[in-house]
């Protein structure tokens, strides 16, 4: 039996791009429910140096911001 693999279920191949998008969107909604951090709105932050960026990044409680 060495070298054999166990297969459970079947891989669902999407029929088209719309089906792929729908399934991906459903998965994203499920993960958003599990994530304790809210999804941030889009924003722009500029830094003069990479060190300033690192300092800002470490100060953030929400890892979705970076």
Primary descriptors:
single chain; 66 residues; mainly alpha; 2 helices
Provide a descriptive summary of the structure in words.
This protein is 42% helix and 0% strand. The mean pLDDT is 85. It has one domain (17-65). With 66 residues, the protein is an all-alpha fold.
Fraction of residues in helix: 40-55%
Q: Can you tell me the number of structural domains?
A: 1
First-residue to last-residue Cα separation:
46 Å
Gyration radius, rounded = 20 Å
Shape: elongated
Q: Give the count of helical stretches.
A: 2
H/E element string?
A: HH
The class by helix and strand makeup works out as mainly alpha
What kind of sheet is the major sheet? Answer: none
**Assembly state of the chains shown:** single chain
Residue runs with pLDDT of under 50 for 5 or more positions: none
Mean pLDDT across all amino acids:
85
| Residues in β-strands, percent | under 5%
Q: What is the number of strand segments?
A: 0
Summarize the model shown.
Helix content is 42%, strand content 0%.
List the helices and strands and how they pair.
Layout: H1 17-34, H2 50-59
